[in-house]
Amino acid sequence: MAKSARRKLRQIERGRIRSAEERVQHILDERTESLASRRKEAAALAQALPRALVCSSGRERFGILIEAVAEVLPPQKYMPVPDGPPALVGLFGRSGRLVSVIDLALALGIDPSSTEDEDHHFVLLRRDDSQVALRVERAHAVADIHLLTGEEATGFRTDAVTGYARMQDAAGDPADTLSLLDTERLLRPFLFPSPVPGV
């Protein structure tokens, strides 16, 4: 009788141990699934966020969607264009083609904060026809951006600005707002048929 009672107690104890282990394992499995789903959501969010090249001209900060950018170049020597629009500051050669240089500040009608050519970066745009580089005062970085809507969506206004954004890691300061450029709209007044191939 005592032996059968002890046997039953051992079976109950084993059942408790087993069920406690199962509970712990169940909790661990749930946490693992939760972490995995969070990582998937974060990865999906990162893929969904647009990326832009952040650059500045004058006191303004602009974002150019990365799909429109071919390359960021250091300062280049260029030849002036006689009788061209003021924003078309010159031409330089690259890979056997002429590249038109448009000064972003002049194209947008804003005052540049620096007139020293050696300080500027050149943003070579990805285009099918004529080669164009935007001369900006500084190309800062490529960043994930959040598009702004409503009252937050304010900043520098022009036809070439199609919206506003903030870098993902920005603290929310209005000074961190980027004006998003539509490069084709920006270039429209400066692109005209040219007798020189590649211009």
From TrEMBL:
Pfam families from the entry? CheW
Superkingdom of the organism of origin: Bacteria
Question: Any idea where the CheW-like domain is?
Answer: 49-192
Instruction: Give me the segments passing through the membrane.
Output: none
Name of the protein: Chemotaxis protein CheW
